[in-house]
Amino acid sequence: MKSTTIEEVAQTYGIENWGAGYFGINRQGHLIVRPAKGDTKEADVFEIVQDLVEQRKLSSPFLLRFPQILESQLNRLCLAYEAAAKEYEFSGGHFPVFPMKVNPRREVVETFLRDGVKQSIGLEAGSKAELYAALSLEQPPESLLICNGFKDETFIRLALLGVQAGKRVVVVVEKLNELKMIIRLAKETGVTPLIGLRAKLYSRGSGKWAASGGEAAKFGLTTSEILECIRLLRADGMIESLKLMHFHIGSQITDVKRVKNAMKEAARVYAKIRQMKVEIEYLDIGGGLGVDYDGSKTTFEASINYTVEEFANNVVYMIKSVCDDEKVPHPHLVTESGRVMTAYHAIFVTSIRDEIETFAEDIAVADIDDDDPQVIYELKSLLDGINSKNFREYYHDALDDKDELHTQFNLGLVSLEDRAKGEVLFWEICSKALQFAHAAELHDDEFEALRRILASKYLCNFSLFRSAPDAWAIGQLFPIMPIHKLDETPTDFATLVDVTCDSDGCIKKFVDLKDVKQVLELHDFNALKPNEPYYLAIFLVGAYQEVMGSFHNLFGLPNEAQIVIDADGRYHVTKLVPASKISDMLSFARYDKTQCVENFRRLLSSQINIGKLDASKASDAIQQYEAAVGGSTYLE
Ligand SMILES: *Cc1c(COP(=O)(O)O)cnc(C)c1O
Questions:
Q1: Which residue puts its alpha carbon closest to atom 15 of ligand 1?
Q2: 204 lies in which domain range?
Q3: pTM listed for this prediction
Q4: Do 314 and 448 share a domain, yes or no?
Q5: Tens digits of per-residue pLDDT, 376-391?
Q6: Which atom of ligand 1 approaches the CA of 543 most closely?
Q7: Which of 173, 203, 274, 322 has its CB surrounded by the most CB atoms within 10 Å?
């Protein structure tokens, strides 16, 4: 009985569809995380959160980081390329690099470098700051350090420092000018990096980032510029340094057809350059391998119509066919997949704090009395008489009455009390009408819209702008579900709002297999015991969200816990990074906290001087003000 409920709940949230084998529900109805797909070891996420709250006295929201999932995703990617190379007799090697812009956190980058030694994973830096961090990290011996992005002289000098430190640095030329700078600095310093050329392909990706590729793309060299680069390098005797050709057709490619076309074109460009006696060894295919956020396996923008293995097969097959056709050696493949490597490893956990009422069910309407306006009488009789046969008609009448009520109010004919009474009656009619529509399995637009309006709005203790910014910026869908009570059928429908003072801080679209849900199934918040917490998790936030999140409203970073699951299936919190305090946010906005206290003390003094405050109260106040700076930016 209980296990069928759990299965149904799992289907409601689609966890098997988008979870990639990492997430599930245990017999207690709690969310579990596995360190690898199909692993029998699992950690109970609700237990972890309770541990953080009760033993470690931390408060939500939390970012939970599972480094084993990073390792697991890296292995999956590498195995896919290995298998594809075997299958298609491809003789080039595979050199994965992690693009730091996707998640530059030291914990993430170091995990890859530590666990990826056998995969010889390298790094990709797109800015001076990323490169600076990369230069400090020990990389596996054969691995590459790829420098992408627009470069100035300082950037290139940093790259040359990397060469001196023994790293295999590839400076990828995005603009002709960059190559001229590289040649000049190499001559000046006597240090030569490996050089790559970024090609602008005619082929485009698909999905939201399609414009990263194609003729009008922001990055890359045109065909004539590539030829000019080769001419310059030959003239300066540096052609031996040209070792890599790069392209990137955009992130989250939804359609595998686009991958095939791009590979076909890129491999031709590579082959034609090789035939010019330029010994390019590496073909860097960029990122773009997507994540199936809604689990629908379609070309919808939140999905992808291929697996990691199919992506790798297509890449390898296409490149191999073209190279064989052109009779050039197979290149080593460099992959810069970031999203698929990191998205799964981080889960954001928040709690529902309150409900935002559309109408207050628990505030009883005063009785209807003789003095009430006609329109109130009418609403009351609609409410009393609504049934399964007349609900549509009665609902329409109620809409007219509500308009009438507001018209009369604006004319001064209806009191504030009567307006309140009328509004409550109206919403009760709506709620009944919706129940009848639901029972009749009626799903027309009118009642679907009403369902959205009447859906509960839950206030969650987090900032969308901090923790899932793409949900706001580009309407990205993330899977969301409770982490406990999953052995009970959710009976409520809700949308979520965050604690920022921004009406954009809300989530009104949820993943669904066939569609996009307008409301999320949740357990009835009002039926919880007093002080009983209700935790929700937002999944697949490990790629781009942390670094793109902002301090809107000065809400800071959440408490962060790194969790490792051992061979016996026990979890260990291996690292805790405390949440931002109010003081951190003050510094961010360039306030000096000592100055704040001084200024506040001065304000209190002037109140004492004019006799409005006594000295002991003022001393209390200043103490409280000073102490508050160490507090959390979120609701406590
Ligand atoms: C952003 C970016 C990537 C990462 O792309 P994903 O789709 O996240 O794998 C790789 N290479 C370059 C040049 C990029 O700009």
A1: 248
A2: 68-339
A3: 0.93
A4: no
A5: 999 999 999 999 999 9
A6: 8
A7: 173
